[in-house]
Specification:
- By secondary structure, the protein is an alpha/beta fold.
- The protein has a domain of 322 residues: Trimethylamine methyltransferase-like (TIM Barrel), CATH 3.20.20.
- It has 18 helices and 22 strands.
- The protein has a nine-stranded mixed β-sheet with strand order 1-7-20-19-16-14-12-11-10. The protein has a four-stranded mixed β-sheet with strand order 3-4-2-13.
- Strand 8 and strand 9 form a beta hairpin.
- Helix 3 packs across helix 9, helix 6 packs parallel to helix 8 and helix 8 crosses helix 9.
- It is globular.
Length: 477
Amino acid sequence: MARKGLEGGSYKPLSEDAIAQIHDTSMRVFEDVGFQVNSDKALTFFQDAGAAVDGRIVRLPREAVMELVGRAPSEVTLHGRRPEHHITLGGTRVYAGTGGTALNVIDTASGERRQATLHDLKRITKLVDGLENIHFFLLPTYPNDVPAENIDINRFFAGLDNTAKHVMGGVYTPEGTKQVIRMAEIIAGSADKLCQEPLISMIVCAISPLKIDRIYGDVIVTIAQAGIPIALPAEPLCGATSPVTLAGNLVIQNVDSLTEVCLTQLVNPGTPVLYGSVASSADFRDLKYIAGAIEMGLLNAAGAQLAQFYRLPFYATAGMSDAKTIDAQCGYESALSSLLCALSGANFIHDAAGLLDFALSVSYEKYVVDNEIIGMVMRAVEGIKVDEDTLAFDLIKEVGPGGNFVSAKHTRKYMRTEHYQPTLSDRDHLEEWQAKGKRDTYARARDRVEEILAAPGYRLPDEVRQRIINEIPGIIE
């Protein structure tokens, strides 16, 4: 049984007073420090709204910030191609899925790292479509064999043509963004239908600290004008692009993401947005990005509380590892950050499957391992149901001292739902495990990869596929 959309929120790394202090400090940054806007289109929207503009530095009073944030919906529903794949984000409901823009894959045959291709992206999409605990598909790789001018359309086509789950991805140019939206409109049936039932969403990152990029600012305007859901994460690194303290990092992350939220609501009030965080640490030996740090889990769990404070859906980051292979480090780093984020009530936990090697690479087998981790994490989020039936007093009285509960109808009723049923973990006796070839987690995961990729998968209807290929240039079949 796949668990999703469960209510989290039991883990709270921030007190109410701490949230109030982070909010107040963030508002002081908006008023006294400001943020840099390098997009002329974006800058015009801030100027027209009466913001204080000095060159490219924009300052907003806290009242204006909160008024703009209040325009954004507190819930956003992202649609899949089938009803069971729709996800409604907001509050403390939890979903987890893929993420990243990895340049490399760990080759399933050689075990060596190589550049990712478009064929890899299609295969990964099909694999994730068959993994029951991965709730959405965020385009996870950059196909190095595709011309840069055709990247956006081919990444999204690979996703939409190989999974029925919701597809999200980053975009790189305003023109590519328009092509992707046009393709999604063809699949949905019309522009209005796409807005009503968005089967795609997009990501545009702020540039920490306190900066809207020229191209990304233009892209935000394009997406908001179309009414497409947009995730707006910031990626401040402790000690590099934010203060080294976690509290200071949260201030930068908060201002950066809220800045982009404000822009979307100036462009098109009511644009569905996800407040977001990819906050983490820098390695103080060489200042590189760290993906598996426990502090990433803490920061993103705290980010969930801030999103709940602002009544915005939350795009969180967890589940990555800095390990180079599927080993113990890979497992504990991925599991811990995912668990912290899920228990905090993070809505849309991206990067929770497939990524390792500082998010530079993906592993087919790690998707299967993370599918198991997410299943266990979601069982923890579900918690313990306590009512008259689960307390089972009448059954305890019936069985009495020295009895057993194995054959009870109550046991049969709850055994498959009360307890997580693993699809990858080994629970055989030693002798059985030995008889089956002593296969470890990696080997069992590889078997599952081969099984899913060999089976028929989801495809767009032939007539829709052909129309996309005919009408949108640059598609590579």
